[in-house]
């Protein structure tokens, strides 16, 4: 199957049928930004969050537009470290994020793992794996298992990776398998210009990262990752093709990571010149301007959504901050198996 490259950057009046998805996705982006600002503040204050904090500032449009096409409990999602917006759009509760970052036993990982390493596999949400590229095989394997059981139906899977992660052997092996089996899989590649501190010029030699899709025989779509309208339209097309049996779809979003690799990183290696390029636009501000231009929302709407998001985030923090962390004297787990470990149970 030949790869196709499509650059979606609408410059004209937006199609009315994108309005609802656009606004839903924008609200998820706002919630994600406010949640992550809270997590960053807690990290800098010290004392409660153990480990790193990894934020998706600047990638919310690309992430949420993908998550909005997935059905919680039905489809399979393997998010990466900057996919808080996608998680929210997919349906992950804010409490799952807050509880995991605060390390309490009521979270999905029971306080045994932190930050972005969380998931609910029974619901289709896979926990993020630090070995980049590995999630592609995990999500592909879950789809293949459903096919073998005869329960695949119209299920699709989606996973995310960065520009640097596409250079790993695990990425190659996973995508090759998915392509050969023509699995209904969407691979979101956030080309945020830096793999930690390594620029894309030292990462790949092809003219455009989407060109790699052709080598695997899958469809490739390139989109302005700062443009929410373009992201919504492009992911809608990609998901529709995957559900229709056209095999894996690689969607490459061009953007800039608006911060360090994590909150511990000052990103001093990013040159000032990069911060003034088109890819450095704040996708939330771009989306707000689009919504105003199309008459889909007002400044009052934005303020209302932000206030609602802050209340939701504050409520999640208030609940999680009062809950206990694991008691080492009551734990019975070890590396290979854990007696009585049932998702959602603790104590």
TrEMBL record:
The Dehydrogenase E1 component domain, residue ranges: 30-328
EC numbers listed for it are 1.2.4.4
InterPro entries on file = Alpha-ketoacid_DH_E1_comp (IPR050771), DH_E1 (IPR001017), THDP-binding (IPR029061)
Has keyword Phosphoprotein? no
Q: Name one GO biological process term.
A: branched-chain amino acid catabolic process
What GO molecular-function term can you cite, just one?
branched-chain 2-oxo acid dehydrogenase activity
Superkingdom in the source lineage:
Bacteria
The cofactor required is:
thiamine diphosphate
| UniProt keyword Isomerase present | no
| Swiss-Prot/TrEMBL keywords | Oxidoreductase, Pyruvate, Thiamine pyrophosphate
Recorded catalytic reaction(s): these are: N(6)-[(R)-lipoyl]-L-lysyl-[protein] + 3-methyl-2-oxobutanoate + H(+) = N(6)-[(R)-S(8)-2-methylpropanoyldihydrolipoyl]-L-lysyl-[protein] + CO2
One Pfam family assigned to this protein is E1_dh
Q: What function does this protein fulfil?
A: The branched-chain alpha-keto dehydrogenase complex catalyzes the overall conversion of alpha-keto acids to acyl-CoA and CO(2). It contains multiple copies of three enzymatic components: branched-chain alpha-keto acid decarboxylase (E1), lipoamide acyltransferase (E2) and lipoamide dehydrogenase (E3).
Instruction: Give the family this protein belongs to, as stated in its UniProt record.
Output: Belongs to the BCKDHA family.
Q: What is this protein called?
A: 2-oxoisovalerate dehydrogenase subunit alpha
